[in-house]
Amino acid sequence: MNHRIILVFLFLFQALPFFGQVNADLSKLIDSLKVADQEWRNLSSRVYKHEIDTVTIEICMMHVSKTDSLNYLVIKPLFDKYGYPGYDQVGDQSSHNFWLLVQHADFHPDFQESVLVKMKAEADKGNASLKDYAYLYDRVKVNSGKFQLYGTQMTLDSLQMSYKPDPVADPEKLNERRKQVGLSTIEDYIRIMNDNFLERKK
Question: Which of 21, 26, 39, 126 is 20 to 30 A from 66 (CA-CA)?
Fold first, then answer.
């Protein structure tokens, strides 16, 4: 065995742990579920914008709810087996996609809360998104009737003229907390929400 072959062998041997980190099959499965998650949501957006009139919002939302329920039946066993799939397991995008699927599992708050705990541990290690964690944290709290921390969950004001955050704990430090997890100011967030979604409500 010549020196070049030995060097190549040593390189591959040393690199094996890194090549083996990403679970390609798990990543593909999560990504496919995310595609299903977005299909009827995207269609409902087009209906809101009056781009199509061949389907109603009610039909779209029925399919959204059905898809969320079916996706839960898959992501729950995945979470039980793998924990929160961080960057090292599935890469940045698939990790984000898994968070999105959990975010939409609103009929299963106990599951969302259990994911939140393990996601926080991964985010603290830099192995998951702190921004995504903030959104899930707020969603869990708001869904259980508690105050959110980061102001990510919004509702329309009484005049239907602007979005506003659902009740927030210690609102004076809201932007400080948002900055800590990489979110924009609440003022910018409200503007973006109004620009992107308010027109659909009119």
Answer: 26
Prediction pTM value: 0.85
- Give the pair of three-digit tokens for residue 91: 């890469």
Amino acid identity of 172? E
Q: Report how far residue 193's alpha carbon sits from residue 198's, in angstroms, rounded to the nearest whole number.
A: 7
Strands (E), 94-153: none
Measured CA distances, 42 to 51, 87, 103 (Å):
11, 26, 16
Which residues are CB-contacts of 49 (< 8 A; sequence separation ≥ 6)? 199, 200
DSSP string covering 156-193: E-TTSSSEEESPBSSGGGHHHHHHHTT---HHHHHHHH
Q: pLDDT (tens digit, 9 = 90+) per residue, 116-157?
A: 999 999 999 999 999 999 999 999 999 999 999 999 999 999
Q: Would you call 152 helix, strand, or coil by DSSP? A: coil
124, with CB counted inside 10 A (0-12, 13-18, 19+), is exposed
Q: Where are the beta strands (DSSP E) in the chain?
A: 154-156, 163-165
* Structure tokens, 108: 């299963």
Query: What stretches in the chain show pLDDT beneath 50?
Result: 1-20, 202
